Every structure is written in C-alpha cells, then in structure tokens.
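#onboarding

Welcome to the new folks! Below is a worked example of what a typical request in this channel looks like: someone posts a single protein sequence, and someone else replies with the predicted structure as tokens. Don't worry about understanding the tokens yet, we'll cover that in week two.

Example request:
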Amino acid sequence: MKFWQSTLSFLFFFSLLSGETEILLNADYKYLNLPSSTPYFNSKILDKLDSRNRKKEELLGMDNPLQHGATFFIFQTKTAVSSGVTIFADLLAEHRGSSYGDRCTDNMIVYPRGYVVIDKDILRGLSIYSHLGDKENFRLNQGLYIFNQDIRCMEHTVRWGNFAYNYLWVADMVNSVGLNTDDFFANNFILYGGDDVSEWKSNLTASLGLCLGDMDSSVSSVKDVYSVGAMLEYKHLWQGYISAGARGGGYRDGACLLGMKFEKSEERRNLKVLFESRYYEEDFLQGLKSDVDYRDVSEGDYANTIGEQLYPLTAYDKPFSQLAVFSEYQGYYKGDDGMEELATDVWGLSLQVSWLERFCNFFASVDGDFNYIKPTDFEGSFYPFYSVKVGYEPYKDNKIAVVMSNKGMNLNKNYTTFYAYEQPYFGFFFSRDLDFN
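Example response:
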C-alpha cells in the first residue's frame, strides 16, 4: 500500500511539473441525503445461509452512509506527457455522514486513484495500448467472468490489422471485489471483421475472441478458465454478444452469457438499455465466495461505515449484477442436521434502463436495474432497483435534484452490493463539476 501511495504521489507531482502538451484539472462534488425505510435483501437465502455465523438481524443491519448526508469530492488530473502517453491521478475524499458527527474521523477517508495509458501507432496497421493502474466499471470481453467491477490492473494490447492480442493481470480480487480468486490473469485473442474495423460494410462491426485465463484461488485447486465470445454491433446503436466458458475442464463447470445493448444520445435526450441472461454451473462457482468486511466487526452497525476494506461511495452508481452475486449461493447453510454444504447452478436475468430528458435548464431521469436470480435448489428472487430524478441545471455540469429511489448501500455483504427498500424514499442530490482547464 505504501508503495502504491508513493507511486501515485510521484505520478501526481510529475504530472504537474512535466509542462508537456496538456494539463487538465477537474473536481467533482456530490451530496446525497436519502432517508431510509425498512430494507429487504436476499431474504430467502439468508434464512438458510450464514457463512459468518452471524444472526440474521445483524446481516440485515440497514445503517449506511446515504442515510446521513454523505458527500464525496474527486480531484482529478490529466497530463499528456508525450504523444500517446497520458497520466491520470485522482484524489478522493469522502465524508460518510453528518449524523455521526461533523468531524468523526472514523467515518472520513481520503484515498488515491490513478493510472497511466499508452496508446501509440508504431507502424502502418500496427498499434499498442497499455493501461497501468485503476479501472472503473470494468468488463472483460463480453463480461462472462469480470463485469461491473472497479479493479486495479495491468493491461497490454498489440493490434495488427484485424487481429489483436491482449494480456490482462487483475490484482487481488479477494478483498477488492469479494471473490476468492486472488490475482486473475487472462490472455485474449481477438479477430475483428472487415477491412475497416470501425465501419465494416458501412454499418456493422464484428469480433470473435478467445480467452485463456487463470484464477489464482487460494481455496480452490481449480484455476484455469476458458471462454469464447462473439460480438456484433450495428451503427454504434445496437450491440449483441454471446460468450461461453468453463473453469478447469471438469464436470459441471460451464458458464454462458447472452446479452444485448442499445444506446442513443441526442442533444436533449439519452437512452441506454442493456439486457443479459447468465447461467453458471455449480463447479464453476466452487470456492469463489470470500469473506470481506466493510465494517469494523468488533463494533455495531451504526456509525460504522469503514472496515478493513472500503465500500466507496462511488460504487453506489454501479449495477447490482456481478459474479460475486452468483457465487453467494456456494458455501454452507443451516440444515436440519447442522451446517450442510451448498452447491447449486445459478441462472440470472438482468435489465438495465437509463433515460434522461432535458428541457431548457431542467432535466428528468429514470434509472432502473432489475434482476432475477434463480438457484437450482432454491426459489428465485427478484431484485428491483430504481431511481427517479427531477432537477435543475443552472449551469453546465452543476445539478440540483429531488430523487425518489429504493436503492441503498449494503455494507453487510462480502462484496459491494445494495439494499432494496420496501418503500421508496425521497432525497436531495446535488453535484458540481469544476473544470480548471
């Protein structure tokens, strides 16, 4: 950790002193105050599954920063060091609730985020791309293994014409995303369709890929993962994709994904729709459930929002679906004869819809994230999350809004996820982007 902080400090000061092509400073400030009602989350599985031997009432503890006027501030720098080399260094500060005390040090935190990007054309038709550091909301290929995750990684891509080779190393997924995979390594081979990749036959873009990965799990001997995937895109509006894979090449260790995405942006209107269907067999998920704490386990839930690991406030904007959701159903549960092992196939559907309408200086938005999870050996569960905002934007990137939602942070699970409130709440939201370019 000290090494990473020192590295980020060096990059930050180097970016300010470099004096090269471009220096961009940007700040983002957000405030959320979301009064609460009674939540429910995964109630069916919690009746039986209790991997930490905690009482159900403790697991359903509902206190979280968004009920107490949480704020976060992001200070960003972007520096073009030379042609094709850019350094990004951010500093995030979070005040996780005024109810805990205006200066309660247990609920305030400052932490760094940064990365370096190298994107260069070497020869005609030959290019390289490297990303070193943090990535937000990352999706590996079509998203069979890693999706909707904030990661820290090293990624290198060499592209020659329609062929590309990509190497990816993701650091410590045990603590960062709640999966017992430690580091994750992947070799990806991608073939693009058409002579002109960006506009094949004027309207279509296609790709076919192979992924050979290694989940370096400390609790499972099954490490190798394989997948193939294909994607077809039309006019940058519609995208359809499919992927299938296996973990270890044994019995019942397969996984598959089918997805479709639509996105259209206009001056006054934005619409995004994503639909996915996933299926994971029991041996694919075996050993992936981890044990991470976002609270101090020696204290009660109230005013206890920072534990051994951090659930960032920025994660509130992430979708619900992630691989850790499906691995939740592997482990032990309380049966009639004591603790019994649980292993089951899991199928899931996810629909994400985001709509924004602008009129004069006013705006309205609707965001929905609807998920259905069906383990083979249990009843299915429906997790609907929604948020409606009506607001005013007096100046560009300066917003104030009233929000109605049923979504709250859940710091009681072993991965960053959400409570769904039984009754919607009304809250207050404002954000301000400061551009010092």
